[in-house]
Please model this.
Amino acid sequence: MANSLKRIILGQPLATAAEKHERLGKISGLAVFSSDALSSVAYGTEEILLILVTAGTAALTLGLPIMVGIVVLVVIVAISYWQTIHAYPSGGGAYIVAKDNLGTLPGLIAGAALLIDYVLTVAVSTAAGVAAITSAFPPLYPWRVTLCVLSVIGVTIANLRGLRESGRLFTVPTYWFIGSMFLLTLAGLWRVVNGTVQPLPAEHVTATNALTIFLILRAFSSGCATLTGIEAVSNGIPAFRQPEPRNASITLAWMAGILGGTSIGMAFLAHAYGVIPRETETVVSMLARGIFGESLLYFNIQVATALILFLAVNTSFQDFPRLSSIMAKDGFMPRQMANRGDKLVFSNGILILAAVSIVLLIVFQGSVNALIPLYAVGVFLSFTLSQAGMVRHWLKEEHPAPHHILLNGLGAVSTGVVLLVIASTKFTHGAWMVIVLIPVIVLGFVRVHRHYQLVAERLSLAGAARPRIGKNPVVVLVAGIHKGVVEALEYAKSISPNVTALTVDLDPTQTTKLRLRWAEWEPDVPLVVLESPYRSILRPLLEYIDRMERQGEGRYLTVVLPEFIPSHWWEHFLHNQTALLVKAALLFKPGKVTVSIPYHL
Amino acid sequence: MANSLKRIILGQPLATAAEKHERLGKISGLAVFSSDALSSVAYGTEEILLILVTAGTAALTLGLPIMVGIVVLVVIVAISYWQTIHAYPSGGGAYIVAKDNLGTLPGLIAGAALLIDYVLTVAVSTAAGVAAITSAFPPLYPWRVTLCVLSVIGVTIANLRGLRESGRLFTVPTYWFIGSMFLLTLAGLWRVVNGTVQPLPAEHVTATNALTIFLILRAFSSGCATLTGIEAVSNGIPAFRQPEPRNASITLAWMAGILGGTSIGMAFLAHAYGVIPRETETVVSMLARGIFGESLLYFNIQVATALILFLAVNTSFQDFPRLSSIMAKDGFMPRQMANRGDKLVFSNGILILAAVSIVLLIVFQGSVNALIPLYAVGVFLSFTLSQAGMVRHWLKEEHPAPHHILLNGLGAVSTGVVLLVIASTKFTHGAWMVIVLIPVIVLGFVRVHRHYQLVAERLSLAGAARPRIGKNPVVVLVAGIHKGVVEALEYAKSISPNVTALTVDLDPTQTTKLRLRWAEWEPDVPLVVLESPYRSILRPLLEYIDRMERQGEGRYLTVVLPEFIPSHWWEHFLHNQTALLVKAALLFKPGKVTVSIPYHL
Model:
């Protein structure tokens, strides 16, 4: 039942041998890996303007120059990653590059930063996607948290179904969004050139902040969310068709071009149309409404925006499990993160990502503005570490090419400076949480790693002697004599010549009866009756078992428990409580083995 | 740690041999068993008046005659139980009497009815006790649900500490309450005789109902809550000192006299002082305020009332676990209800009662008026069955005494008629829930009983042959070769000459390595490598185990799992997932025994 439900939702299992065919070309690769970066067009300009407008509407003119600065950063980072892809064709991104070149700790910091940002991408993009829908259909606004949760569940299922199907699912919407954005930009420009711009209705805004350098930098920091996801391609190189680095780097270039173009386009149009950001409607929605009116074209923009944002969520669903599996193989995360499910995907990573981001969406009530200050710190930290690692990588070569060092050095310095700007301007608005969380996660990585190392040392057979076990004593716990007990005793006799039965005297009449029947049925197994003045069953048993051990009888003491397996689940409550308690009590005692002999009713 | 906390809360354990000394005399017996009945003085009159007042203030004059009728019923029921106590000196009350004389089903119905009413007694009395406090200290009103829950927890702990200490704890408050009620009644009467009654301020009440016979019967039904708890003594006879029946019946007579006197007293005073029932203050509080003014005597009445109500809760904490243990010994409830804890009390019954009544108090927001319609149906059902059973009991004697038959017959008929009145007048106000619940619980009893019977039959050794077990095959699941695996293999070799190691091939490189090292360390144990095209660990293992069984290799197949016992709880998440899954999958398969060989890290 449960299994067939699983098959309906997830489809047929895929054999390990099928893996090679699950690869992406440039077209589908762009769809799968670029949606995170491209979708930030939906909120990048808005987040800049939302900060600027607190200093009054006049400050909004700074939106376009700030966006130009951000796009310059996009180009620098894209060039840096172009070099990374070619130097690390097997993928892994910031974690691997930092770990290889800067050492384990920087690698782990990059890993923690990336994992946090993947979770935030899911939360922010889902919230923004739902905002695109509620902008077009305001009555849905009260349902936004529910819509967010349902969207994440939908993407989770799509990903559990397997990578190729993801590519197939996501190609059409990505290109639809790219097309729609170009259409919006061109139509908007045409009206500007034509002189038929209808300025949006002016609103009165009360300035609450002064237009300080700090505020401008905060606006820039918020806009830097545009860059999140740009590293997705470099993490996912192995998912591309051969030659992977070539396909991946071309995809990256396309992506950076489209991202830069549409971002500048939106910022320019927002300026030209005099958009004043509002809580109830997104900037893209206001622009589309102003350019197309409430036509089908307007709704097309909103639907395409919502879809690309849900696909951005998908990028994280590709990269979070992949990075987790790499870190798990290195022993920094629990091993089960490296297990592939029966659809060839890392199911545990997918499920954990879904769970954490759903919690975030509920806690932050599905609000993009509430989530944004947490965002981008992690990404810029990983950019900086990755580019610094690349600089180190080139320096280690015998004849390093100066332009390699220069380009990655430019990347490292510029992203490092931006990281400081983001961390300081958004610190009190939420970035502190991420700054606190990163060392906590890194500590977790270190402890997991130390644990696995310790286990490996303890378990190593190097120089180990073979343990002497011999024939061990067996005790069988009995409360009466019936078929289940006789089975258990026979089993005990089959595994050891040294079998004792133990019972606790709770009722003298019952115990006398038991002794009589015992002599008849099991004369060859000694029956030890333990006194229990305080009616506890557990204590006398544990004391007896301890005494046996002190007398040094063998390496293991096997405790056999006759256990009923009832035919209905509720019948469990009517039996076996003692067996459960005994097992729990003996679990942490060395040298004790408990065996339940099931008796099926 | 956990154990020493338990000792601080519950005190030192009591030996089984200490049981005889844990008995009650008449003075302490009255304190322990009468508080339920007596405490209804606190709300009996009020509940009658609350129904009558819906037909206008003129209808309130019917309060006194209705209470007189209820007190007549008290006398009839008390005489009936006097006879029961002497006929059944070993106690057990309605369940035993009905089962012995009318058959199992009526016995179970009586048992279910009583258990429900014990839970309701806890809920109603706690709510009324808290109402007495909030009448005197109105600012506490918003905290009433919290106060209710804390009270139940307090009484629970007192009861888990043991029976004798309960008697000691509760003697003073019971007699304090009795004295206070007599004082209130006498002071009130003195003023009436003296002519110094100050009538309470008149309030305007809008009549919402007509004064029909049905309404009068509903008022009577609500007042019948006065009788709940009157059977407590007959259930608890074995708790008295010898001669138990004499001590118990004298206690019963005292109780009925005090109950009847104070109930009539309250109803008379309410009439004489013109009390109009209100939501914000109890009737007893209004009377005490009218008679004593806001003096210390007034607060004394409120505190004594609250205390007796918390003691009423205690009566249920005596009887619910005792009845459960009797029914558990008869096989109608899970056996663990019959286990005595280390303070000689039936701890499981106490804990279940506490949990269910806390839920009720939270659901009904600690309101007496909301809970009252559920109350009394169960008690009158058990009265009727018990008295009918007594009639049958006398008829079975060779020379039945006519007055015995007559008195119990009168009891049966009158409580039966009242039962019908209560069930019909309160049906839509909540009694339906109880009427639905009783058959459900009875069905539960029957199914539990049937299960235990079935188990006893299946397990019976009558005519059974001794099972042939012989040497069973053992398989050891391994994922690599290390100290833990070697331990497990040595253990397996010690219990069987037929040991096979099983591993699943998830990574050909690893598997090849394993084969090489295996040949070196364990050349005498065959290593079977299972293919797993879909990367599942579980499925190939289970398929192999199934195949082994189909080839008919012995009665049991023992599956040995090397398991790590880490030193910190969180490290469990880093290991053993496969072992857990295998154990869960094999639990319900007959003939499979799983053994974890612990390796302590």
About this structure: The beta strands of chain B are 474-477, 499-505, 527-531, 557-565, 592-600. The two ends of chain B are 23 Å apart (CA to CA). Residues 132 and 198 of chain B are 23 Å apart (CA to CA).
